[in-house]
Amino acid sequence: MLEGKRIIVTGSARGMGEATLKAYVEAGANVVGMDVSDEAGESVSNKANNAGPGKCSYIHVDVSKKSSVEESFTKAVEILGGLDVLAHPAAIQRASNASDVSVEDWDLMFSINVKGTMLTNQIAYKYMKKSGGGSIINFGSISGLRPEPSASAYSAAKGAVHSWTRTASGTWGKDNIRVNAILPAMATPMYYAARERSTEEENIASHWRNSVPISLGQEYGDPDRDLAPVMVFFASDSSRFITGQLIPVDGGQTAGL
Ligand SMILES: NC(=O)c1ccc[n+]([C@@H]2O[C@H](COP(=O)([O-])OP(=O)(O)OC[C@H]3O[C@@H](n4cnc5c(N)ncnc54)[C@H](O)[C@@H]3O)[C@@H](O)[C@H]2O)c1
Predict the structure, then answer these.
(1) Residue 72 Cα to ligand 1 middle (Å)
(2) Per the count of CB atoms within 10 A, which of 35, 88, 151, 251 is most buried?
(3) Which CATH architecture describes the domain 6-189+222-247?
(4) Active site residue 58
């Protein structure tokens, strides 16, 4: 389904980035995975490349740093021979309360999650314009739609990702570049870490438990089964008339807002 597509996946060392990268290579694409976590990133890419039928390699990136993004994307585009798709799950999540969130936490969250989205999208746009079009898939969150007492900076940053996604789609549509954001609820290392550090009260307040109508025997979705096929669709030409949208892939969680 993705034969001939040239794709960059950020945050590819684990979680939804890993599931996305594997699915793209399985669908025949030529992929470069990127992350700050190099050992895991290399290992995920090597395994996917060996499994085929597409191709895959790995490059280090820190999405919050302009020079790193420029250097890594330039190298990746050289390897791929152009760029058609950017899947951008790379992000961090930290706990913070609105009453006392520190400037350091706020800056870190906005640097990686918001500036990282702007920097990766902007350079992807430059290369996709040369390719005659493309698809950028960002990652928002239900946290950017609802009050999030246990993660104030994360929530504000995801709200900014939603706004950016709409604005970029409006700006780049004329170049045949679509920009959407997935709002997932998937069982990944980020999810388990957040659940682990939360109190029972916060778990209930965050609606993590019993908040997913289609639970399929688990609380959150399986990235390989429940997210990866959607990522393939948004990388493919089948989604060519969808842009500027926030797409929940969450078993109905946002429907309860
Ligand atoms: N897991 C969920 O249910 C959930 C819910 C809502 C939104 N999200 C969003 O979905 C996306 C994927 O989440 P996940 O659960 O797979 O997370 P994860 O923590 O499991 O994986 C994130 C990856 O991003 C990488 N990363 C972090 N900082 C980076 C940086 N500066 N540069 C490059 N790579 C960096 C990490 O090393 C990691 O490999 C994120 O944007 C997250 O905010 C997740």
Answers:
(1) 18
(2) 35
(3) 3-Layer(aba) Sandwich (3.40)
(4) no
Burial, 63: exposed, middle or buried (Cβ in 10 Å; 0-12, 13-18, 19+)? buried
**How much distance in Å is there from the Cα of 13 to the middle of ligand 1?**
9
Q: How far apart are CA 153 and CA 230, in angstroms?
A: 28
Residue 177: what are its φ and ψ, rounded to 5°?
Answer: -110, 120
In the chain, count of helices (H) and strands (E)?
9, 7
Tell me the pLDDT band of 126, cut-offs 50, 70 and 90: very high
pLDDT, tens only, 98-115: 999 999 999 999 999 999
Q: What are phi and psi of 203, to 5 degrees?
A: -60, -40
Whether residue 201 has pLDDT greater than 80: no
The residue among 194, 106, 107, 191 whose CA lies nearest residue 153 is 106
Reported in sequence order, the residue ranges of the chain that DSSP labels E, i.e. its strands, are 6-10, 30-35, 55-60, 85-88, 134-139, 177-184, 246-249
Contacts of 242 (CB under 8 A, 6+ apart): 178, 180, 234
Distance 164 CA to ligand 1 centre (A): 18
Element (H, E) at 151: none
